[in-house]
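Why run this: before we spend reagent on co-expression, it is cheaper to look at a predicted model of the complex and decide which construct boundaries make sense. The entries below are exactly what would go into the expression plan.
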Amino acid sequence: MGGKTDVWQGTLALMVLRTLETIGPQHGYGLARRIEQTSGDRIQLNYGTLYPALLKLEQEGYVRSRWGASDNNRKAKFYELTKAGQRYVRKATAEWEETTAILARFLAPAGE
Amino acid sequence: MMRKFRAWMIRLFATLQMRRTRAEIDTELSAHIAMSTEDGLRAGLSAEEARRRALLQLGGEEQTRQAYRDRAMVPLFEGIAQDVRFALRQMRKAPVFTLTAVLTLALGIGANAIIYTLVDSILLRPLPYAQQDRLMCVTGNTFVIAPKGWIRALGEQSHSFSSLAGYGDDTESNITGSDIPERVFGASVTVNALDTLGIHPALGRFFSKDDEVFGQDHDVVLSYGYWQRRFAGTPSALGRTLRIDGVSRRIIGVLPADVHFPYADTEFLIPVSYNRADVYDPWNSFTLHIFGRLAPGVSPGQAQAELRRLRGILVHQFPWQMPDNWASDMTVVPLLESETGDMRPRLLLLFGAVGLILLIACANVANMMLARATSREREIAIRGALGASSRRLIQQFLSESIVLGIAAGIAGLAAAFASLRIFVHLLPAGTPRIDSISLHPADILFTLSASVLAGLLFGVIPSIRMASLNLLESLRLGSRGLTGKGSRFSASTILVVAQIALSVVVVSAAGLILHSLYKLSQVDPGFHTGRIVSAEVSLDSAACTRPDAPQIWVGGSTIFSTRGPCSAFFTALAAKMNGIPGVEKAALTDALPLDGQDGNYAFDAENHPRSAQANAMFATGRTVTPEYFDLLGLKLVRGRLLDAQDSSGATRAIVINERMAQSLWPNENPIGKHLLNVVDETIPAVWYPARAVEVVGVVRNTRDGSLGDDYSNQVYLPITPSNTQPVLFALMRGPATPAEIADGLRRAVSEIDSQVPVTRVRTLNEVVASSVAAPRALAVLLLGFGALALVIGAVGVYSLISYIVSWRVREIGLRLALGAQRWQIVMAVVRQSLLLAGSGCAAGLLATIALSRVLRSFLFEVGVLDPLTLCAVPLLMLVVALAAAWIPARRAAAVDPMIALRAD
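The model came back. Tokens follow.
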């Protein structure tokens, strides 16, 4: 396998929401950088896919956006989590932990 | 689920705000790239490399933008919205074209919207009854009305109807209550009629079985409108008493607001009751129309078969023997269909006409678009060269024409909405359901669909042509060739010829119907109408009977064996009428000529023995005062007219018309022959010499029913004390104006009895005119549509010819330079126009003849091959073609060869 991992389908949304929950309102570029940093630069994010994903979450009501100014005083769109988004993160996190726990049992070295 | 829906709605909304959505996406992405590039610079990359990395990391600017847009909006709608925007821009760029096209189409669509609204309101919209499609009207081959006993017997035996009911004619009655008397229309219904309809009272209750008992039937149900008007809609009206024709009736209920039953102007309903003491009572009054509700799962055909079977059994319940052919066939048709009657073919004819007009308008706009396509060849060629597929181009052009169609649809709908009342006003007064005519959502939907369809129709030819242009040639030539190529106009020529042909069909139909209306108006009604005023004088129907006098049925209307005060009233009135200032002659009758309300006189005639199984003969019967003949100018042919002695009842005199004399006693002297009225016979075909009347005179024929009908048998009986009807028409002639005469009559009436209303004052000319109201309305509407077709057709010819001329300016210039005369140029243009008109006319006349089966039933004494119409219409088209060619021909003749040849 290569050094860096592509983002799996479906997990990007959770990463985005979880990141927004941690750092608060952020613009798209900042969010992308932060996701890469969080992964310890182990995932290579195709930034282009981030925007449609963000938009989908917004259309479904998990995030909302507003225009603001970036650090360099540039007009940028800032995304933040909604109440529904927070609930979703909690639920999805629990499910994800459940799934990984189950998988971990299967993948654990045999005979222990 | 909700979140998915929410997402779709947001995307749809964003599509509508496409420009803004796109701008926001661009801003966000460029901010992203800028920030990414700055980070790169900070990391020590060169400006160029930093930007390259930023774009790489994004996965390509354009790709990302597209993916982002696709998620933000609905891609399919995005394309459509783009096309619509483009179309609107194109329309703004060519305002004259747009205005002409939209206007032409809007006329066609508006006409369609109006006629469809009429068709929908009158023919299609369901009646306001539960499961109204299960309600059927029952008619017989020999009757439309039947006695109540027959309906009851059928209803008891039939399994295919869950209930059978009847309703009577719409008759006007005097209603007196607290205040002024008024004349109000009402009808009698069987007690189960309203339940059969499946309606519920707005207030109170409907009739019960108790109302069926003679003597306990003094109840009345009011229409919603009358309840509102007379009682201001107060619930306390229930239980109050109305005096209807002298009978006190208790108000027990009110019909729902949307129910007008059985007739549009019926204001009250009274129950049909049975007099148990009289065995003849259920059978001797033929007054009720039959309708019923089909039992579940039964088809109209099955019900009809059952009724035909039951007839053979039940006919023996009559207390006398009925003729063999009476009700020997019965027909079951949906109630809605039977109510709309002869309005149906007329409306469908009009609908066909406006359909053709829309086609004409479509052909027109298609031609205009073809012409425009030529001027857009370069634009199209460039777009094709830049990679637009021909499918994309066609979609683009179709969007343009659909946008055009919808714009015209909205304009047409607005015009229809504004003018609907005018069209309703043009319809004859008796049109069924005329009160409920209104523009419903369904009609708007129809109009808009028709607009879109029209857009597709006129867009498809130009679109295909434009998309299949030879790109290379267009780009290379860059401008018009020296000569116009013949083939380039072939599609346009076909369209214009078709357009003229369709116009000819509409105009010919209008012409034929106009001609037959003229023929109809030339028909001699057989009596004078000039300066004659008629008015209805109505006593309570009880005025002709003493209280509790038994009723007898004669000649389709009630007369009474013992007479009340009505005879004295009318005798006094007849005497007073002659004294009205400005009245020279005056008469009374129970039926106006050509009013459509004639009585039936069933009779046996001397020397014409009838078998018991055969029907009696019929004549149109009216009772008159002796002055009637002179007043209407009815010429005596033989014998004598009625006189004062006949009016006293001392004689048994009757006057018949020529046709009746001819058919009964050809080559014999009819004077002194005898007739016997047979309607109340209990034993058929028995001759009672003591009751027979004697023919004393023969008068000229007059028209009955309508001007278009053949002459029928007619009899005139004197108004005598024993047969005076409670409602008579006063006829007066004199130099005074109708208003003065009516005032005089009112005074004369109130001097005798101040409670008696005088209504429906009309001149006899108006009575006759209203008998042709329906064909006249049809002719007026068709003429209007014919003119519309003509105008649109003329615009079509004009635009094609002027387009051809403008295309050939160079050729014309060259010809002129080579020595052609200007009149030759003019002739060439005119010839082209005439050729178009000629071929269109030929095709159109052929089509009209092919449609003769449709048209024939609307015509009176005019064949489809009417020489007048067949000559006038082509002549008219030639004039139109000349007029349409005039301006282009002048322009062609004015071409300056020097300028024309030097131009581009």
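The mean pLDDT of chain A is 83. Helices of chain A lie at 11-23, 28-38, 47-59, 83-107. Bring this page to Monday's planning discussion.
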